Amino acid sequence: MASVVVVGTQWGDEGKGKIVDLLTRYADFVVRFQGGNNAGHTLVVDGKQYIFHIIPSGILYEDKTCVIGNGVIIDPGVLLKEMASLAEKGLTVTPGKMLISSNAHLIMPYHQRLDVARENALSKDKKIGTTGRGIGPCYVDKVGRVGVKVGDLMDPSLFKEKLEAAIDEKNFVLKKQFNAEPVDLAAITDEFTRYAEQLAPFVGNVSVTLDKARKAGQNILFEGAQGTQLDIDHGTYPFVTSSNTIAGNACIGSGFGPSHIDEVIGILKAYTTRVGEGPFPTELPEGDAIGDTLQQKGHEYGATTGRRRRCGWFDGVVANDAVRLNGLTGFAVTKLDVLSGMKKIKLATQYDVEGTPYEYMPENIRLARAAKPVYEEVDGWSDELTDVRSYDDLPQEAKSYLKRVEDLTGIAPAIVSVGPGREQTLMLRNPFEKK
Ligand code: GDP
Ligand code: IMO
Ligand code: MG
Question: Which residues line ligand 2 (CB under 6 A)?
Fold first, then answer.
């Protein structure tokens, strides 16, 4: 029996979906614990690509339960569409296969509208570059104690009361502050009454279910969304998402006790990407030959918004922040194949911030913006890696690169990924097996 948390170590899109899909083989439960459909997790199984925004990435297995914890925020229309699209592919999501926390909050149509209106109103240097999915406004309402929970939706009179209490203020702000279209109470009530009927069989108490599973000796896999530097407390604030993305939130966002977590695996892209605005010290800006190669060879376009991802070298400062903040016990290094063909590869080992050396991301956003990476350079390799299936068959330079990452961080890779497919993976250590 083991409980394993998977988190992103950088700015998201590290390949969490692929690794979660792979590890689901050993798990009984796969649990999302934060974020919403700002996430885009890609799986490639038998050559077919699936992108999940809200359904946990374990859904392709027959006999596993996918769980949406209380820390997740749910756009019910998006969830139902995702379920319908799976049904079209012959995979019916039955109540036995998915459980939704009654304590999870709902992304309401006004949240989405406010997110977009707020971003549009910001000047260029202040824009966050959100996904426009209503994430910030929904978490604001949760913390402000005026949010609408999944459990409220299941109780028509409570839902009506909450919606009526919220809507006048939301429409006032939409119209008066942003000159945006207001939302319609009757239309939302109709739409959400349908959602309530469709989702009711899936709703339950996640904390109680996971506790029973643990006591019965079942394996639980927690699937983080976004990445460590997008964490609301520890990331490059305000250029972050509105939830805690680090491993500690696996417990809070699902109602699972911290003493029961056995392993925390950090997904680490072999280079770095970021989508949206904000500091990115190792960025190789658009037009840089190496940055453009990483972007093209790595197909670095957002899985949610289709935006071009910014690309840069591996950042050891970011990796070490992730080791510390998540208490990592292992890495899954992804996209090592994308580095093939580089004569030399750079790794940032620290920052120079206005003459002061930094081994962690400065908390002050002005200083984070001023951070200049200090690089070291290692030899690259020319062989393509996509057909490699064992660590021993990696070129010596690729092994040295992995070893250098291990030496810089003190954390060894448990998994190395050399392509998007489930089979393109080197499993050095199975986190579900006792150390
Ligand atoms: P996530 O949000 O962390 O799940 O990552 P995304 O799905 O947004 O982005 C990762 C992208 O890289 C997806 O298109 C994956 O199919 C792809 N991918 C994952 N692992 C590898 C790998 O090892 N090599 C290559 N070339 N692509 C990968
Ligand atoms: P996955 O789970 C990469 C970024 C957005 C923006 C900032 C805030 O696929 O790794 P939000 O809509 O959350 O308020 O946007 O966070 N962002 C992500 N970037 N991967 C993600 O998820 C992201 N989710 C949010 O681009 O900069
Ligand atoms: Mg993604």
Answer: 8, 11-13, 38-41, 128-131, 133, 135-136, 225-227, 230, 241-242, 275-276, 303
